[in-house]
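When time allows, look over one protein, given below as sequence and tokens. The question is which stretches look regular and which look disordered:
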Amino acid sequence: MANNDISPREMIAELRERGLTTAEIAGDLDRDPSIVRQILSGKKSGEHYRQTLTELYTTGRARTIPPRRRTKSGQISKVRAKSGGEDKSVTPVEHQARYREQPKRGTYRPGETMYFRGGGRQYEVDFPKTKRAKGRAQGWDRVKKQARSAARKQWGERQLPEKRVKFNITFSDGRVMEVGGKGGYSAEDFNQGIKDNDGDVEAFLMSQAQGPGGKARYKGLDVSKTPITGVSTTVYPWK
């Protein structure tokens, strides 16, 4: 994929206008946020990251990971270490796969993030169905942090537009259910729902998935006995 009509710096600036943070862009580039800032300031051209930036700019999703620079001997070039460490430089880890790894179903997977214009985003998280599995706790913690972070009204001194959040939840039997489809949840409603369930986002979504009066929304699906194994969180501007 190529887009030579716009520079990496311009793509990053546009992505920032759409609502992406420097840290989010850096995460998709698999680099430190300082790299993104250097491209924005003109200290670096950013050409090395053009393909991934183009994917993010045109589709809202980064599918490739920029390769690490190497020395003449073929070794990965060292980068400056974070301040406070003993070493001045370190050798970064390089992801070998061109495309992001897709773990087997039933394991914890942070998943991909898709970005939309206006600051909207969609997060995907999969986790094992076993209640005591470590990955399950990690998955629900990520869902909670993503929804709360994306629905915030202020970032530093910057006032953010009101957003709504809705979910598509996948049960262990493969059934997918939309929760919050009619207009989504406001930040206040979502946070209050979590609070009413003692801070448990899983309990909140399970309560919403249950039909009125405890009646099942779908025949043959008992949400109290069928664990959730995947959550797709969509956050979008509300006008």
About this structure: The chain is about 30% helix and 20% strand.
